[in-house]
Every structure is written in structure tokens, then in C-alpha cells.
User: Fold this.
Amino acid sequence: MEKYSASCRLILCCNSSSKVTEAVRSRCLNVRVNAPTKEEIVKVLEFIGKKEGLQLPSEFAARIAEKSNRSLRRAILSFETCRVQQYPFTNNQAIQAMDWEEYVSEIASDIMKEQSPKRLFQVRGKIYELLINCIPPEVVLKRLLFELLKKLDSELKHEICHWAAYFEHRMHLGQKAIFHIEGTVGYFHWIAT
Assistant:
């Protein structure tokens, strides 16, 4: 980086600058780009609809933007999925969740049904499947926690959040993400019994 800085420029893109080592960060100009607003996402969806020759109701575009959680990639994928499911669009058309999110919801339901070593082994296999399909481990852990929180009583929510944060922190320090996700699930099994 330093040797060829006069003739070469590197652009590094990341979701979190904390994952970039301090040595690299100190040699770079850090530019933070915020996620697009819902209004900006709606404009992009309308632009895509216009280019594709699709009639996109503004209320439906706003619902897609709302459900995308300020992720333009997710909004565009949802838009494509809705186009495949039903066209012409309607204002009250269902916006389906991503397949991996439904799969994580299924894992959370499996965890809630039974707390046993056999179930833990089955859950581990499903988590491996998500990781093999390039779903980031932090995203899997966060989504799994979100799904479990929907199914827990209020007295356990604080404790499981604490331990999920602990294992997420350890995940960044360690090598194999599966161990830390499995640790969260195992700890949940322990406190739920």
C-alpha cells in the first residue's frame, strides 16, 4: 500500500470498520456511507420499475422499503420476488421473507420444541447449512436471537441477550463461528430446562 501509493489507489468496502485491522485503517481515508433512507429506496424501486416497464404502486414500494430494514439489496431482491409471485402488483400484496430467514425461524421453533443433545445436533446441522450457503455468522446469530426472543417469557429475554452478545464478541475473536453460535444455542438449552 505504501510503496505504490503514488500510482495506485485501493478501495476497501466493508460493513463494519472495526473488522479492519488498525494497521490498515491508519493508512486509509475512512469514508462512512449511511444506509439509504426509506424514501431513497422507494425512488430506486420506482426507477427499476420504470426501466422494466412495471407499474409499481407507491404504497407497495413503501411497504417493501419498510420491510427491507434500510438494505437496498434486500429491497431489490424482495421486489424481484414479488414480481415473480404476482404481477400486476397490488397495494396489499404479501411480501415474502427471505428463504434463509424462514429457515432460521424454523431452527428457533426446533430449539423451542425440545431441549436435548439430539435436538442440539440437528440444529447444528441446520446452522452449518446456513453458513455453507454464505449467510454471515453474525447475521445468523442475530436473526436466531430475534426469533427466540419472540418465543420467550420476559424473564429469560435479558439473560439470553447477554449470552448472545457474549458469544458474538467471542465469535469475532475466534476462528470457527459455528462453535459460538452453537454455544449460544447450548446455553439457551441449559437455561430453558
Observations:
- The radius of gyration is 21 Å.
- Residues 154-173 form the longest helix (20 residues).
- The mean pLDDT is 83.
- The chain has nine helices and no strands.
